[in-house]
Amino acid sequence: MLPSFDPWLSGAVAADVALASHSGHRSLRLRRERRLSNLLVSATRGSRLYRRLIGDPAGRRLQDLPITRKADLMGQFDDWVTDPVVRLDALRRFVADRSHIAEPFLGRYVVWESSGSSGQPGIFVQDATSMAVYDALEALRRPMLRSPMQLLDPFCLGESFVFVGATGGHFASAVSVERARRLSPARARSLHSVSFLQRADRIVAELQALAPTIIATYPSAAVLLAEEHVAGRLKHAPREVWTGGESLSNAMRHFIHRAFGCPVTNSYGASEFLSLASECHCGRMHLNSDWAILESVDDRGNAVPAGETGATCLLTNLANHVQPLIRYDLGDRVTLRPAACACGSPLPVINVQGRSDDTLKLCQPGGQAVSVLPLALCTVLEDDAGLFDFQVVQESPCDLLLRTGLCGHDADVALHRARTVLSAFLEGQGAIGVHIHCRSHAVMTQGRSGKVQRVLAFDGSTRRAPAINVDIRRSPVPHPVVADQPLAHPGEAGGPGGSNDSKATAPRLSTRNHRPGVSKRATRPE
Which of 100, 164, 193, 433 is the most exposed, fewest CB within 10 Å of its CB? Predict the structure, then answer.
């Protein structure tokens, strides 16, 4: 069955997005106010949960409404959604079957799941309007990085896209790629996904064979591919690199750009709203404020002044009426910039302190280090081991500490299962002889974004504080010697972009391939 797609609706939404991109602040505000009013009426009419939370929406100000959180909403899922035939049990059965990726749920909804990076996995249902909005925002607001050349090919018919990331689950990135392939069979041969759970040499071999003009992936994966290109193992160089789902520092961007000799662009999104913001030609991140409201708030839920970074941000999705998200705690720290951008866009500029995990360099027989991507490691622990509350700390080139906030018997069982799964994955990556130590009831280390940093690389200090002694010991191998690189390696943390759900929000592959009427990054890849 083809994915749900309404060409007339998509054309109308795309025309409005194009018009709003060149309108003034007043026009954007009026659109936002009208859509918020419609959302509140729809939510209180169709959702039992929002009727209890909001009551009569007439005259209610957004800032006076209660803050909502994923765990609470998922716990009352059937009361949350506005379509009574959408049930959580049925959705869980649907996403448990990977053959359903990009299939329409109930014949009309697009479904994806979040990775559980906040400790609570989520399932998100998109109606036709929300998908039309995401498609239009991605197709029309991502900058053309090679403008003179792309003007000759506005529909990207000559491009070959490859997404490198989590490909085996119902994550937004994987769903988006498969949806684009099915909606445009003529372009399916040039739309591909490559799993980042493979060894680096296999990823390189696939990319070498596919020879993509555009690679969409996570910043950490883009750095790894740039390293492979500099080392001469990846001969092919793309014409563009799209990143998302993690923080992209200036050092990372420059390294990727210098390695491949191509432009790099970043975007910001989440499972809850796929296309929150994208970069302009000036390198500033612009919020799609005609369809999404982001409130930057302190730890008490009060708004912080423009120019200051809040403790978290609250999302109101103005597009999705089947699963309303109103003042939803997204978990990212966002700064709303008061000054206008030199690019001339009326859309507000934001800075995002998203997730910033480390790529691990682990020991390998022969002395060369094995690079393990943080999101690949997280995917294995979440999807294969079912562990969502965890942190992996590298204590030496051959020692990892796996810790969780869980305690008691459940923690012991979960850590034993996770250790077994992680050990097998690392051996498959070529990292032999890695010792995995486990600890329960642990206090997690937070990153600069205020979130738990889930993967921390070895920094030369002694971090070990053993608890549950469940080491996996193999034959000892020498500590790795990392070869010098001819280009400066990215070492800065932070930077614009990122997401609260990395696997979900890698840069999506382009939907410019089936532009509605006037009709891409779409992812995540989060």
Answer: 100
